[in-house]
Amino acid sequence: MSxxxxxxxxxxxxxxxxxxxxYRIPINLPVTCPNRDGCVAKDGCSFCSEKAAGFExxxxxxxxxxxxxxxxxxxxxxxxxxxYIAYFQNFxxxxxxxxxxxxYLKEAIREDVVEISVSxxxxxxxxxxxxxxxxxxxxxxIEITIELGLQSINHKTLKSINRGHTLAEFIEAANLVKxxxxxxxxxxxxxxxxxxxxxxxxxxxxxxxxxxxxxKLHSLYLIKNTxxxxxxxxxxxxxxxxxxxxxxxxxxxxxxxxxxxxxxLLGRAPKEDTIFCxxxxxxxxxxxxxxxxxxxxxLYQGCYFDYLGGKAVRHL
Length: 316
What we know:
single chain, alpha/beta, TIM Barrel, seven-stranded parallel beta sheet, two-stranded antiparallel ribbon, 16% strand, globular, Elp3/MiaA/NifB-like_rSAM, S-adenosyl-L-methionine, ELP3, 4 iron, 4 sulfur cluster binding
């Protein structure tokens, strides 16, 4: 069974939408996070380092225009690529003055960029930033996607990992993004030590109820010398087993609406920087194991999606 029958694959979605393969180009801005600089908390998420998630991106000292040009000049000839997504990836990309945010976005506008994707936090988004994005979308006829980091729906977990925001703030931000007609992608980590299987299933249900457009799943990776890495190395915190993670991911997909696109099942990080990443297994092998588990247990995305729409009165 192909994976696009097990879940809604992002690459296939892009091909259908843009009629050809589209490549995402990471953009690295000189920004930080409000839970890192003291605005809402200090030191950032307990699993996140000063490098954050942008290890594949170019230096943020390079202009947005030049980052795009360098990457496109490299990718285009090698893969015969013609269309790209400018992905503002690292840290909190709306955590800067609106006028500065707008200037960065305008640097990303070029004929072969068909979409701008902005990654941010639920507590770092309001109408000012979305109005700017709407103006650019209408003026340039370009698609806009907002990626919100949630990671967990459990309020105790969010506090334990020092996220600095609540589930309520995420729901507000998600509804606001949807009201502008932008695509909404949500990031989730399915093996945070404080979460259990029920949290994972409830996460799928909440995202389905909110009608998010896509989900980006991560297996937790721990950068050396981060607070959570120190707790795990000292034996004070335990990550679920690989078998449990495979089951969690499969159940998350089973309870998730079949309409939601799956950007990816796993993340990656440089091995030399981490104490834990994908259970010391290559990401594609772990992906194959998740898919094999789903097939063996007759699971597929949305097979348990029967809990919305007033299920208690369906028989009346």
